[in-house]
Amino acid sequence: MGIKTVLFDLDGTIIDTNELIIESFKYTIERHLGYIIKPEDVTPYFGEPLPITLKRFSQDKWELMLDTYRQYNEFNHDKYTKIRKDVKEALELMYKNGIKMGIVTSKRRELAIRGLRIFDLEKYFKVIVALEDTEKHKPNPDPILKALELLNANKEETLMVGDSPYDILCASNAGVKSAAVKWTILPFNLLEEAKPDYVINDMLEILKII
């Protein structure tokens, strides 16, 4: 049975917000906790909901830090956001071939849509499942299951594409195939340990899978 539905993580997969996320954490932690972090202090947690990551640094101040992070992130969002290589070409080809596509992200809906609109990508996606749409988040299967429900899609015909172990585990827990992207900022062995069904070096390689 072929792939008829492709779900994508957003940050680090469709759009490149790695620098934005790192700078947002650096600013927030220095302001509230008084020290400067290195990228490797936060990149292992890319893909999980922001409150969970902030609680790793402070159980007492995480709510204040959340407000600061979001203010900095939103103010600098467009400046630091880039598009991944080959994304638009691949999405256009899948769209023309009748592939149903959706976004499954731990990002808030408002910023997810903003990131897509910068590069005129919103038109390709029938659904966006964001942080607000499920009570439980990746690696719990609920975000993907929600997307499947909204798309009226079958698990057996669905592929999830992501740059984090949380994406791959979410797919596995939901019973759908997964593809790990080689351009992840994370050490790739972390994704390999999650056992993706496929590994892709660029977005156009999805066309070989479907």
- Please identify, by name, the CATH architecture of the largest domain: 3-Layer(aba) Sandwich
Q: Judging from the principal axes of the Cα atoms, what is the shape?
A: globular
Query: How many domains would you count in the coordinates?
Result: 2
What name is given to the CATH topology of the largest domain? Rossmann fold
Biggest beta sheet summary = 6 strands, parallel
Low-confidence stretches: none
**Given the helix and strand composition, which structural class is it?**
alpha/beta
Strand content: 5-15%
Strand elements, count = 8
Radius of gyration: 16 Å
Task: Give me some keywords for this one.
alpha/beta; 210 residues; globular; 14% strand; single chain; 2 domains; Rossmann fold; two-stranded antiparallel sheet
